[in-house]
Amino acid sequence: MSHDALRASAKAYYEARLQTHGPTPAGVDWNSQASQDLRFRQLERLWEADPDASLIDYGCGYGAMATFVRQRGHRGPYIGFDVSDAMVASARDHMSGLPACLVTTRRDQLEPADYAVSSGVFNVKQDASDEDWTGYVWETVADLAALGARGFAFNALTLYSDADRRRPDLYYADPLDCFDRCKRTYSRFVSLLHDYPLYEFTIIVRR
User: Fold this and answer.
1) What is the pLDDT of residues 103-141, one digit of tens each?
2) How far apart are CA 42 and CA 33, in angstroms?
3) Of the CATH numbers 3.40.50.1460, 1.10.455.10, 3.30.360.10, 3.40.50.150, which one belongs to the domain with range 3-206?
4) Closest CA to 61 of 31, 32, 82
5) Side-chain half-sphere exposure of 148, counting CA atoms within 13 A
6) pTM confidence score
């Protein structure tokens, strides 16, 4: 499958979730608010020492991270990006009272920010092959790297998940391969976070 086809399939999947569950963690396929916030706290390590840094949320969904970062004291510009018009409309409503927060469906409107992060966009591959989805993942990581002038971060389900609990429609990445690729390609300063109680990991790349 082409990457455009994979992107379109993911868009349809998440729009269906949003229609069913509304602007909630379930609307972006998370189990709970607590698990969503735990993921955000891992990503936050990228910018926590610089509350005035600009931040791109790549695959922002309904804008939950915007609320999270403002509640945690982040003051810099927040720019949400999502390919779904429905998600972006929901995000605009969700962050309407938050200062310095924008959201767009237009990739060509994004200029590099200090940091770029992505949460959950690699998890649901549906019926795509692992080979096709892996190519899509690394194309997206390259885009994150291009948008994060001072660093970027992303998370993914871990290949270390129990084999009998894995689902065929989900993508389980090799955390060691992700670390190695990012270390060799993007920066000497890479962190692999695999010590929080979810079946996933977070990669943080600093420049």
Assistant:
1) 999 999 999 999 999 999 999 999 999 999 999 999 999
2) 15
3) 3.40.50.150
4) 82
5) 27
6) 0.95
